[in-house]
Specification:
Layout (H helix, E strand, L loop, with lengths): L1 H10 L10 H12 L6 H14 L4 H17 L3 H17 L3 H17 L3 H17 L3 H14 L6 H17 L3 H18 L2 H17 L3 H17 L3 H18 L2 H18 L2 H17 L3 H18 L2 H17 L3 H18 L2 H17 L3 H137 L4 H11 L2 H19 L2 H8 L6 H11 L4 H8 L3 H13 L9 H7 L1
């Protein structure tokens, strides 16, 4: 009933009075008589009487809910009529009368929708989703969850959004989409953490654990069950702590860590024995029996299975009883208690065969065959083995049939999806054609006039575009011509400057020889004249003009080379590209003709595509 209690706290804001305290009940009944029908205080008292009896006296609680509805209708009070329908729906939901609960939830919802009470609308939709989920109507449940989530947009409603995501995760897990379940459960956890709600965080962690358990990732599942267990034990919620312990035992059993499986199973059994949680005792004894069987402690395994079988017989749960009897027979066979093993095995076979549980029947007949062989009844042992083989064949056929059914389902789904897609495409095509026809009829008259206008406008536009393109070509030609002029001028200036500086350098050398006292000062001047920094500055300016005319020539040259090119080689290639003669190039680079020939030779070696004596022509063609 835990989920129901949480929902109730979401739905109701009045103070929850303690149990069936007679003094409180007498006080409320006395207070009720003091107020006339239709008085708001009387409605509040009725609601407190309803809440006080909800968990202990459902019939009285139903009576108070119906009284709220009756008196609200007499006084035409829409608000309290909605309240009465809502709380009566909760009562009927608790009592398992799902269809009636849905009816009263449906009656209550219009009032909250009309008054924009999003919280109550969302909770009613959420409760409706729970009922649909419990009945296996997953598509309807998800529909109502989406509607509920749209009501919880207020930042104060993080807890409610967490509940929506948690239930969505449960539905995804029940539908076999474990990855989707992990996603929504993780979202539920984050929302609960943001809201500071530790209880919902623990619930979300447990749902994440269930999803990983379904994915057979038992290690991760155990981590989340441990986290939820810590919270439940800290808050003394021993029912859900026991649920976590049962699942921890299951996870560690699957991993093969039987020591931890026994530890958590026995711990859960202690909570059950102290708290009287009989509905969980069967599960934990069944798990412990299997774990003790796995470690070879057949005596303890038999004890657990015997206790579980007694509880199942008392509760008349034949489905699980057939499973436990099969296990009990197997354990007693290991203990060599052949009489009891045979008796329990035969009863188990009768139950599981009736239920069509082939795996257990296959296991049971195998155990009966071994029991008969040990008792010396070889004819019976043979008969059981034949029956066992028959079930084994049935299992194989069932497996193949299941695979075929799965493939058929996938094929039918794919065919259905393709058919729907084709129908949508045809519908869209028909709609498009209808729209085209309509537009054609509408535009026919306008089109003729527009055609003449377009012809005139097109001719004028073409003429103007031609003029504009010619103007742009002329402007570009002028720009290129100016850049070429600037580049030639700059190259000439560099050549003249180089000659002047060489001449000045020679004169300084002569003066240096004639005036030894000024040698230090003259050496500095000579170094300044030959400094790379000055040369680099001149070439930087030159490169700017050069790229304006010849674009990415330098990049093309580098791609053509089979080795990296030095700055001096790049400069030499740029001057050749400008179609300068050797004398002009040597003057600009301040080198002799002999040094220039050597530099060209080294450059040609780095350009495989340049033939012997064809360096200048090759560079100018790039």
């Amino acid at each position: 009933m835990r989920s129901g209690l949480i929902l109730l706290l979401l739905l109701w804001s009045v103070t929850n009075l303690s149990g069936q305290d007679q003094e409180v009940m007498d006080s409320l009944r006395t207070d009720l008589e003091l107020h006339a029908v239709g008085d708001s205080l009387r409605f509040n008292t009725l609601s407190q009487l309803w809440l006080t009896t909800l968990n202990n006296d459902l019939l009285s609680s139903v009576g108070f809910a119906r009284q709220i509805i009756r008196e609200a209708k007499i006084t035409k009070n829409d608000e309290w009529t909605a309240v009465g329908n809502r709380v009566l729906g909760i009562n009927l939901d608790y009592m398992g009368e799902s269809d009636s609960a849905l009816y009263y939830y449906t009656l209550a919802r219009p009032y909250y929708r009309q008054t924009d009470n999003l919280l109550q609308s969302g909770v009613l939709l959420f409760n409706t989703a729970i009922i649909h989920q419990g009945a296996g109507r997953y598509d309807s449940a998800k529909h109502y969850l989406l509607l509920a989530d749209s009501c919880f947009t207020n930042p104060k409603h993080l807890r409610q959004r967490s509940a929506v995501n948690k239930l969505t995760a449960t539905i995804a897990r029940e539908q076999g989409d474990e990855a989707e379940a992990v996603k929504y459960a993780s979202s539920a956890f984050e929302l609960a953490r943001e809201a500071g709600d530790s209880a919902r965080m623990a619930d979300a962690e447990q749902e994440i654990a269930f999803a990983y358990q379904a994915l057979n990732d038992y290690g991760t599942s155990a981590e989340y069950f441990l986290r939820s267990l810590k919270y439940y034990e800290r808050t003394h919620d021993y029912y859900f702590a026991t649920v976590s312990l049962i699942n921890l035992a299951t996870c560690y059993q699957a991993i093969g860590d039987f020591e931890n499986a026994i530890q958590y199973g026995e711990r859960g059994l202690t909570y059950i024995e102290n708290g009287g949680m009989g509905d969980l005792e069967i599960d934990i004894r069944n798990i412990l029996g299997n774990v003790y069987w796995s470690v070879g402690d057949h005596t303890k395994a038999e004890d657990q299975f015997v206790r579980a079988e007694k509880l199942l017989r008392k509760e008349e749960d034949r489905r699980l009883r057939g499973e436990v009897l099969t296990y009990l027979s197997g354990v007693q066979l290991n203990l060599n208690n052949l009489v009891e093993a045979r008796r329990n095995g035969l009863e188990a076979i009768e139950i599981v065969t009736e239920q069509g549980r082939l795996e257990l029947a296959h296991k049971g007949y195998g155990q009966l065959a071994i029991i008969s062989r040990k008792r010396g009844d070889y004819e019976k042992a043979y008969d059981y083995m034949v029956l066992r083989q028959g079930f084994q064949d049935s299992l194989y056929r069932k497996e193949q049939s299941d695979k075929l059914a799965e493939l058929t389902l996938l094929f039918e789904k794919e065919k259905k999806d393709r058919l729907i897609s084709e129908q949508k495409s045809q519908l869209a095509l028909l709609e498009s054609q209808a729209e085209v026809d309509r537009l054609q009829k509408t535009a026919l008259g306008v089109g003729l006039a527009a055609l003449l206008f377009l012809l005139f406008a097109g001719g004028y536009s073409y003429q103007q575009r031609g003029k504009r393109q010619q103007l742009e070509k002329d402007q570009l030609a002028i720009k290129v011509k100016n850049q070429q002029k600037e580049l030639s001028t700059h190259a000439l200036q560099m050549a003249q400057k180089g000659q002047l500086l060489d001449q000045l350098g020679e004169e300084l050398q002569q003066i240096r020889g004639e005036r030894p006292d000024d040698r230090k000062k003259l050496d500095g001047m000579l170094r300044e004249l030959n400094s790379e920094e000055r040369i680099d500055t001149d070439w930087t300016n030159f490169r700017t003009y050069f790229q304006g005319v010849h674009g990415d020539f330098e990049e093309r040259l580098k791609l053509a080379a089979n080795a990296s090119l030095s700055p001096r080689e790049l400069r030499l290639a740029a001057l050749i590209k400008m179609q300068l003669n050797n004398q002009e190039v040597g003057s600009i680079l301040s080198v002799t003709q002999d040094s220039l020939y050597k530099a060209k030779y080294r450059l040609r070696k780095k350009l495989p595509a340049a033939g012997e004596g064809e360096l200048d022509g090759y560079i100018r063609s790039l």
